[in-house]
Write a structure and sequence with these properties.
Shape: elongated
CATH class of the largest domain: Alpha Beta
CATH topology of the largest domain: Aminopeptidase
CATH architecture of the largest domain: 3-Layer(aba) Sandwich
Radius of gyration: 18 Å
Distance between the termini: 28 Å
Amino acid sequence: MTRGRTLGDILDAAARGHFPSPDGGTTVVPQPSHRDAGVIAFTAHSVVFTDEDPEWVRRTLAVLDCDALAATMNPRFLGALLDRTRRSMDTIDLLTVATPLAGAPPLELIELVDADHPRGDRARKRRDDVRIWAADGGVVVLDRGVAGRWETAIEVDEGCRHRGLGRALATAARHLVPDGQPVWSQQAAGNARSVRAFQAAGFRPVGAEALLLDT
């Protein structure tokens, strides 16, 4: 278990398809900011980003009676980490990423400036540089999240589902992301419609992520 590259370095590499070695290990890196702490589980290798003592992480993982490959996402470890950091969490998400696309989005969008939208209000509590665009029947949000990465989320009105709008909104995010950067998104594993929409839009799964929220 080592400290080495930053979380930003690891995410940049993962976006290009270069992942930590699948050696069953765990890498501990410092938090990229006070806000951002948590765990990302890649294939057979996990990254814990926390300012807690790496030796505490090592000891806590070592006493778990579970598969070592799943230890960092074990509820007992996450519970111990939440207790130690006095943080909370919502869920373990599927972490996905996509490359940017050139040109205009595939549907008509109107940017909502200073809009009082519930999705935007929620994003502003946890992310920076939040921008929201509205389409007929849904919205797409683009913002800066963990380690400054560009992240997106979408919302489709209930009456407009099953028409491919979710896929179109997720694809639009790939056109809207600035500076040729990759765009990331998280989907709750149980939200099958969202998972399908993002994968149909070209977002590829890279791991699982548990974010610890500063309370």
